[in-house]
Write a structure and sequence with these properties.
There is one protein chain. It is globular and about 90 Å long. Helices cover about 70% and strands about 0% of the residues. The protein has two domains: about 35-225, no CATH class; about 230-740, Cytochrome c oxidase-like, subunit I domain (Cytochrome C Oxidase, Chain A). Strands 2-1-6-5 form a four-stranded mixed sheet. A two-stranded antiparallel sheet has the order 3-4. It is an all-alpha fold. The chain is built from 26 helices and six strands. The chain has helices at about 1-30, 50-65, 85-105, 115-130, 145-160, 165-170, 185-200, 230-260, 275-280, 285-310, 325-355, 360-390, 395-400, 410-440, 445-460, 475-505, 510-535, 545-575, 585-610, 615-620, 625-650, 660-695, 700, 705, 710-715, 720-740; strands at about 40, 45-50, 70, 75, 130-135, 140. The two termini are about 45 Å apart. Bound molecules: protoporphyrin IX containing FE and fe (ii) ion. InterPro entries: Cyt_c_oxase-like_su1_sf, Cyt_C_Oxase_1, NorB_cytochrome_c-like.
């Protein structure tokens, strides 16, 4: 007992120290982020852009789709270019030509090697020189560079307008014509792109060869190559990972000798479970889960198809009503929403089950939350869609439309409502779980951990309210990753482990006493790496070297437990044979096994593949990231969501209506489909792009020449078989669930004790 208390204290200490450090690093990012000048001037005094235009430009960019169309500093979506890398390359090529004509009176391509070297050197000098004066808050560039900037600005102003000359390029980028209708806004957008590119290549004050974004993106023309610290900390991160894995294997084998397996009870402990009215009210949540999943898959197929056909779907001009911005936003947003809905429902389902009583008015609360969620999902989706189609402007986009930030796109009003909804969910859970924790004779630690992780999931949603319309982009990214990263690599992991352990302990398949301690230890390990690991998203977003160092080392620790959870999955699987009755729970358990396997493969391996700074330097913004994103987000949390849903449905519906064969098909089709999608299409296309990025630069890996190369198009088509297998798996799940719901409900489970399929 005493030692259990001690490890809870360790957990509190780890969290307190890690969050203190994360906040401190946030302050560092704020201080070292690239400044926004009040004026950008040419040497002869002409004003190119104002600070007001740069800030306005950021808003315009976000309102026109932002991270849902291309990326800035590598964050966003991958068919259109990285705008900062694209601007940087265009400006460098244009300026080099002007320099060549000025110095040698001839075009660069006609010069001999020696003269080229001189021009190239001058170009580096011009582009890396930091002409920003902090006192006057003015950035001065040479007249020649000012001309180059003007020319590149013209290109973007045309691109975002309606000029048919650039229509084919727009199609390559999966953009629609006229996405920024107002000319002044288009100028502001160009100002923002200029500033975002300037920050990537100009030297930090007092330093040489080190830009605000730690020299990201790779662009040999302006000597943007990895910094020394980048290489050193990458090596450190690999060593740390090996050390961590060694320690973990040692610890694990030492512990395994002492751990005796639980003896499975003779009968299913949940056999005579009678769902309370509020538990039964969670059933409707699951129909929404399946509906959102199906829409997400449909939107994913359309989004992927736009990578070959620009604005059409097999000849139908679909983009007129459903442009890429909208399909991709819905795809990513619904992914988060259906998984969240499955978990919310599971939380509401298990709370009275654990407490052993139904809190007063609980059903009313569960129903009210359901309808509130429907309003939020439908409202935010429709407003985002409408705002994008009708170009309703920056205020609309920020407040009720599409904020243009990946995974956190819904307008601010919807975010606030969702936050209130999450708090209400916590309240509903707390009413049952807090008495349950108080009364628990055993299993208190597990229930407490499920509740604490759920509380953190809800409370940390508040970090998506931290930025305003004009917050510096570096700080928007800082807070956005507080949400996305701390959720998926922190509290979700804890929730997943705790809820699975809780279910197994309820089924009598693991020993409560050892599970209580193990869960706190595992949480310490997850959060020790996970909280500061947030910084691996911020290596190149205007932060200084410290972020690379801390991010690389701590995120490497995250992979350590993941290397082992695959093994835990295997141990989980063995439990299916623990007693004959367990076979009735076979498919929920197998989905939990899948969680373990994809944690190792999708999160651990594919995550670490892009994680060392030297790796992410070349591949940030390439298809390597969605390869990891799909395998980890669906593989781990999607599978968990389905496993939890099946666990709940088991208690809510008739056993006789269960079709094990449909579930078997669902399980295998989803897993095989996901593996095909990731390993036959997305990952190879990421590796192909990585090659281009290392040899020529990031701009090239994201240019139409590579993105629309025959190999890449072939790889998009290679996605189709995997997508189909996957989609059929989801349809089997839908049919399975429909059969359950249509079958008459008794409200009482009728599990087969013989253990064989009924
Ligand atoms: C189940 C756990 C995880 C989930 C669900 C997950 C999910 C995601 C998602 C959705 C993205 C963004 C993809 C995009 O923007 O297209 C991402 C990016 C990334 N993840 Fe993970 N991830 C997990 C674990 C990990 C782990 C363990 C590591 C390595 C230690 C890792 C490293 C990264 C990196 C380096 C990026 C790219 C960062 C950037 O571009 O800023 N992830 N992950
Ligand atoms: Fe992360």
């Amino acid at each position: 007992m005493k030692s259990t208390k001690r490890i809870w204290q360790w957990l509190a200490l780890v969290c307190a120290l890690s969050f203190a450090a994360l906040l401190y690093m946030g302050r560092e990012i704020w201080l070292s982020a690239p400044p926004i000048p009040d004026r950008v001037e040419s040497a002869s005094g002409a004003t190119l852009f104002t600070g007001e235009e740069i800030r306005r430009g950021q808003e315009v960019w976000l309102a026109a789709g932002g991270q849902q169309i291309g990326t800035v500093w590598g964050h966003g979506s991958y068919v259109a270019p990285d705008w900062s890398a694209d601007w940087l390359h265009r400006e460098a090529v244009d300026l080099r030509e002007r320099l060549s004509r000025q110095l040698a009176n001839n075009g660069f391509d006609s010069l001999d090697a020696d003269r080229r070297a001189v021009v190239a050197r001058r170009l580096v000098g011009e582009m890396r020189h930091n002409g920003y004066n902090a006192e006057t808050r003015t950035l001065v560039v040479s007249d020649l560079r000012a001309d180059a900037i003007g020319a590149v600005a013209g290109h973007y102003m045309t691109l975002y307008g309606t000029d048919p000359a650039l229509q084919s390029l727009r199609e390559d980028y999966a953009m629609t014509a006229g996405s920024v209708p107002d000319a002044a806004d288009r100028r502001a957008l160009a100002a923002f792109y200029f500033w975002s590119a300037w920050a990537t290549s100009t030297d930090r004050p007092g330093e040489t060869g080190h830009s605000y974004t730690n020299n990201w993106p790779h662009e040999p023309m302006v000597e943007n190559t990895p910094t020394t610290a980048n290489g050193m900390w990458s090596i450190a991160s690999v060593i740390v990972l090996l050390a961590g894995v060694a320690a973990m294997v040692w610890f694990h084998s030492a512990r395994a000798e002492h751990d005796e397996a639980a003896r499975a009870p003779d009968r299913d402990p949940l056999f005579s479970l009678t769902p309370t009215p509020s538990m039964r009210a969670t059933l409707k949540y699951f129909s929404i889960v399946i509906a959102l999943l199906l829409v997400q898959i449909g939107m994913g197929a359309i989004t992927a198809h736009y990578a070959v056909e620009g604005g059409g779907f097999f000849g139908i001009p679909l983009a007129e009503v459903l442009p890429f911005v909208v399909s991709r936003t819905i795809h990513t947003q619904f992914g988060v929403l259906w998984i969240a809905t499955a978990w919310l429902a599971t939380g509401l389902y298990i709370a009275p089950l654990l407490a052993g009583f139904e809190p007063k008015w609980q059903k009313l609360g569960v129903d009210a939350l359901f309808w509130a969620l429907i309003v939020i999902v439908a409202g935010s989706t429709l407003c985002g869609w409408l705002g994008s189609l009708q170009h309703k402007g920056t205020d609309f986009a920020f407040w009720i439309g599409n904020q243009g930030l990946a995974y956190t796109s819904m307008g601010r009003v919807w975010q606030i409502l969702l936050f209130i909804g999450l708090m209400f969910w916590l309240f509903l859970m707390a009413r049952a779980l807090i008495p349950a924790i108080r009364a628990a004779r055993e299993g208190r630690g597990l229930i407490a951990m499920v509740f604490l992780s759920a509380a953190c999931i809800g409370l940390f949603y508040a970090s998506s309210l931290a930025w305003g319309q004009r917050t510096h982009y570096s700080m928007i990214e800082y807070w956005r990753w507080w949400l996305v990263h701390l959720w998926v690599e922190g509290f979700f992991e804890v929730f997943a482990t705790a809820v699975i352990a809780l279910i197994f302990s309820r089924l009598g398949l693991i020993r409560m006493a050892s599970a209580n301690r193990a869960i706190v230890l595992e949480t310490i390990v997850f959060l020790a790496g996970g909280i500061l690991g947030t910084l691996h998203h911020l290596y190149f977003t205007g932060a200084s070297t410290g972020v690379i160092a801390v991010g690389a080392v701590f995120s490497a620790f995250e992979v350590v437990p993941l290397a082992l959870v695959g093994l835990e999955g295997w141990q989980t699987y063995k439990r299916v044979d623990a007693a004959p009755w367990v076979a009735a729970w076979r498919w929920p358990i197998l989905f939990f096994v899948a969680v373990g396997v994809w944690n190792t493969v999708g999160a651990g391996l594919l995550g670490f593949a892009i994680n060392p700074p030297i790796s992410l330097y070349y591949v940030q913004g390439l298809n390597m990231t969605p390869a990891h994103g799909h395998a980890a987000l669906f593989g781990v949390y999607g599978m968990l969501g389905i496993g939890l849903m099946l666990f709940c449905l088991r208690g809510l519906t008739e056993r006789a209506a269960w079709s094990d064969s449909l579930l078997k098909a669902t399980f295998w089709l989803l897993n095989i489909g996901l593996a095909m999608m990731v390993f036959l299409s997305i990952l190879p296309s990421g590796i192909y792009q990585a090659w281009a990025s290392v040899t020529q630069g990031l701009w090239y890996a994201r240019s139409p020449e590579i993105v629309h190369a025959p190999v890449m198009h072939a790889l998009v088509w290679a996605r189709v078989p995997g997508d189909i297998v996957f989609a059929v798996g989801a349809l089997c799940l839908a049919v399975f669930a429909a059969k359950l719901v249509i079958a008459p409900r008794t409200g009482k489970t009728a599990l087969s004790t013989s253990g064989k399929r009924a």
